[in-house]
């Protein structure tokens, strides 16, 4: 198989991995203004269309084109949900580290990909597989001088020294927990050990960050960490997923969790299990951002009796309907932590309100809208200088 065909084989299922702040599927390369086939030299138009890249936004807000792929789709594990599980009948493909590094650099020079998300099936043990990922990253960074974005996957079974080496090469490292606890993981991946193989590496990353100075890491910065859950794959509740997410954000400085709504894959043990509504994935993201950025506690999430979030309503709105509808917030007196609880007011909006209040009172919705507040969402929960603004809403 030539390297490009290998890449196409290996990338074909990578939409299941929510690696960065992805915004849709395949994209034209950066700088091409959407015309993949007009740019440049070393790839044919057919090759350019086939290359599997994704639009992604980095934590600093920069948009890049990310190549998401595996080093190999061969895997000795048998996770129930996974298209790459051992014994599933399909054509496997494998890159050698040098081969992948050369192909990626070719794509990078052709402006087809700015960064890499690199994972792998497990072959000959987690530590051996991890070495191949490290070898690839070292070739790219040390021999080929690649200075762009790199997200490397930690393999179940990796050793602490390998995790440290990955952190010296990558902008982001991650390992997928897949399920929120040991019992749930047993329903999804019976041969993965939740504490020893999945949670421990995330703890190591934080230990290493705390014990070593930043200059020892790539570009003088500590790499961020993320994880991913298969939402609904083990019949777990949103409460279980968010409890683990919250613990990880507080204790090992997880940047964020990704939730991938379960979707059955043909010819796997879970092929007859129903797909999970993608809206559940969206509600989990909203709730996790309330925990991370808006000062909400887990206990404040509007969980239903079954431990799930209501699907029809955004969790912040559900909270406000229960807590602010009868006791609206006076916008001219509220503290930042309370402003953040109002639907339609985000961190930037809350700051803008505090700044504007220093010069004059906020008396109408027009003034709020100028500050970037989504007034149609916020108005039912606010008082403007002692008055409910409901009568002004028709103007918006
Ligand atoms: S270890 Fe990873 S690649 Fe292998 S079966 Fe499990 S989820 Fe799939």
Plain-language structure description:
- The protein is α/β, with parallel strands linked by helices.
- It has 2 domains: 3-227, TIM Barrel (Alpha-Beta Barrel), CATH 3.20.20; 324-395.
- Helices cover 37% and strands 11% of the residues.
- The strands form 2 sheets. A 7-stranded mixed beta sheet has the order 1-2-3-4-5-6-7. Strands 8-9 form a two-stranded parallel ribbon.
- Helix 4 (126-143) links the parallel strand 3 (115-119) and strand 4 (150-153).
- Helix 3 crosses helix 4, helix 5 (160-169) crosses helix 7 (194-211) and helix 8 runs parallel beside helix 9 (278-293).
- The longest helix is centred in the middle third of the chain and has 18 residues, at 126-143.
- The radius of gyration is 23 Å and the shape is globular.
- The model is unreliable at 23-41 (pLDDT under 50).
Explain briefly what this protein structure is:
With 396 residues, this protein is an alpha/beta fold. The chain folds into 2 domains: 3-227, TIM Barrel (Alpha-Beta Barrel); 324-395.
């Amino acid at each position: 198989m030539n390297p490009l065909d290998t890449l196409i084989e290996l990338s074909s299922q990578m939409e299941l991995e929510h690696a960065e702040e992805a915004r849709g599927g395949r994209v034209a390369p950066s700088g091409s203004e959407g015309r993949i086939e007009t740019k440049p030299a070393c790839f044919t138009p057919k090759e350019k269309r086939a290359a599997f890249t994704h639009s992604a936004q980095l934590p600093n807000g920069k948009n890049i084109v990310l190549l998401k792929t595996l080093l190999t789709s061969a895997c000795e594990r048998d996770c129930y949900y996974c298209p790459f599980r051992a014994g599933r009948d399909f054509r496997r493909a494998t890159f050698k580290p040098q081969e992948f590094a050369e192909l990626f650099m070719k794509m990078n020079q052709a402006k087809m990909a700015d960064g890499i998300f690199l994972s792998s099936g497990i072959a000959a043990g987690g530590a051996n597989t991890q070495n191949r990922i490290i070898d690839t990253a070292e070739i790219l960074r040390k021999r080929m001088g690649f200075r762009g974005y790199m997200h490397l996957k930690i393999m179940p079974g990796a050793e602490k020294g390998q995790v440290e080496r990955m952190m010296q090469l990558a902008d982001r490292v991650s390992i997928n927990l897949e399920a929120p606890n040991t019992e749930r993981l047993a329903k999804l991946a019976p041969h993965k050990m939740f504490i020893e193989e999945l949670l421990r590496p995330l703890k190591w990353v934080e230990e290493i960050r705390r014990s070593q100075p930043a200059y020892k890491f790539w570009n003088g910065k500590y790499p961020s960490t993320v994880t991913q859950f298969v939402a609904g794959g083990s019949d777990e509740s949103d409460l279980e997923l968010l409890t683990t997410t919250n613990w990880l954000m507080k204790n090992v400085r997880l940047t964020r969790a990704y939730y991938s709504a379960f979707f059955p894959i043909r010819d796997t043990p879970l092929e007859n299990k129903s797909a999970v509504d993608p809206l559940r994935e969206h509600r989990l993201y909203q709730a996790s951002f309330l925990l991370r950025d808006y000062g909400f506690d887990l206990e404040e999430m509007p969980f239903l009796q079954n431990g799930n979030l209501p699907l029809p309503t955004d969790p912040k709105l559900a909270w406000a309907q229960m807590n602010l509808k009868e006791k609206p917030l006076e916008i001219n007196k509220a503290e930042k932590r309370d402003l953040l609880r109002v639907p339609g007011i985000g961190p930037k909006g809350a700051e803008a309100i505090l700044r504007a209040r220093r010069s004059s009172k906020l008396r109408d919705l027009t003034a709020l809208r100028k500050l970037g507040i989504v007034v149609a969402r916020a108005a039912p929960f606010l008082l403007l200088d002692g008055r409910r603004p409901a009568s002004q809403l028709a103007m918006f």
